[in-house]
Amino acid sequence: RRLLGAFDGCDRFPRAFVNLRGGAVRNGRQEQCTAGVGTLLLELGVLSRLTGEPRFEAAALCALRLLWSKRSALNLLGNTLDVASGRWRNPTAGIGAGIDSFYEYMLKAHMLLGGDEYLAVFHDAYHAALKQLKHGSWYVDVHMSTGQVTWPLFNSLQGFWPGLQMMIGEFELGIDTLRAHHALWKRLGFHPEGFNLASMTVQPGQKGYPLRPEHVESLFWAHRTTGGDEWLHAGADVLHSLE
User: Fold this and answer.
1) Global pTM?
2) Gap between the Cα atoms of 189 and 122, Å rounded
3) Is 102:77 a contact under the CB 8 Å cutoff?
4) Which residues lie closer than 8 Å to 13 by C-beta, 6 or more apart?
5) 200-241 pLDDT, tens per residue?
6) How far apart are CA 135 and CA 138, in angstroms?
7) Which residues contact 86 (CB under 8 A, 6 or more apart)?
């Protein structure tokens, strides 16, 4: 209930931080990422069902609807926006850091909570990503309004995407991207935070791997979906790398 202090109705985005004692957050950050605004439904939706208080899911749904209203004509969302003004600060669209779980939660909210609205948003956002962001087996960042490539980077947080595709039956697309992701893993022994697809080198300043689980999750869904030994062997590659 105290977390609801981050919300200011349906015409403003939720703030990134909330003062749990009540009152405004001093020097509160005005910038929010798309995932921070649009990735609230699973937790708050379940909370409403467990408590019988609809206001939790209602707050998350208001945030989602406001966010989706800011999409471009290409059905793409940018990376970060200004909470106060509602304007985009970073209009870069992608499936990685800052946006990733928006796609994931739209599908999983429909699967868990039901209703057509979440599925409709996912459908439009997903097909826009396929059309505007997909380059071969990889996905890049583009300007949300023009579709022009801004960053030809693989981001380690993109690793969830093939698993998401398995869930909706896009097997061939998912397997193709997952094989590309895993080939990079085998080459480096991990997934860096950023890998430049133009130069095929690790992006300077993004060489770390903070044990992100997204790639392993996709390997799990690939094995669960296909039953093939290929993905058990891929999982063993990850285990051996970590050891």
Assistant:
1) 0.93
2) 33
3) yes
4) 32, 37, 63, 66, 67, 81, 83, 86
5) 999 999 999 999 999 999 999 999 999 989 999 999 999 999
6) 5
7) 12, 13, 66, 70
